[in-house]
Amino acid sequence: MAKPVRPRTPRAAKPAASAPASAPAAKPEVIAPEVTAAEDEATFALRSLQQAHANNRQYEATDDELLRFYEQMVLIRRFEERAGQLYGLGLIGGFCHLYIGQEAVAVGLQSALKEGHDSVITGYRDHGHMLAYGIDPKVIMAELTGRGAGISHGKGGSMHMFSTEHKFYGGHGIVGAQVPLGAGLAFAHKYRGDGGVCLAYFGDGAANQGQVYETFNMAALWKLPIVFVVENNGYAMGTAVKRGSAETHFFRRGTAFRIPGMDVNGMDVLEVRQAAEVALEFVRAGNGPVLMELNTYRYRGHSMSDPAKYRSREEVQEMREKHDPIEAAKQELLKRGITEDRVKEIDKKIRQQVAEAADFAESSPEPALSELYTDVLVETY
Question: What is the pLDDT of residue 4?
Answer without folding.
Answer: 44
